[in-house]
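pasting for the record
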Amino acid sequence: MSYRRRPDGFDGPKSLVSISALLGIALALPSLAPCQADYDRPRSIASVIAEQRDLVLQAVTAYPERSFALGGISFPSLSSIQYMDSARAISPERRDLIRRWLISYEVGLENLESYQRELLFREDSLLVWMPVQSALVADFERMGRRESVTLFLVWVGARGRPENLDWLFIVYGFRSR
């Protein structure tokens, strides 16, 4: 298993108070407070997109000059997926979305330098380019095309117009299956 610290700064239950404060969630309302079981749980990329689509559409429609929406909750997930053996540099627009997300989570911008390349993955019929921490890229490059892996990932947000949204997830760890 290859694993790096989660990019949103979460390092376990002791951070619950700071994450709750950051998200504007009162811990006095336990039904709204994030629980440990919500972190790094099995979840598909498609399910996060389906769950967040309406909110993202509202955000990019209400503020068309902005054309992006950041995830208020990063949905840390374990996702079973196939590595497609393709890589590319991260576009300036996607890097900007990661930068804005890091700022919103009050995580140091030096974490942005950990993401230089994105790799292509497939979840069922969905093809997704995802930035991968630089320390992990070489491990992926040693794999074969369509090798099945479990990714540790978080949702950053989405950018673009309602008819053509670019959903951004970043990978901070994986294990071979």
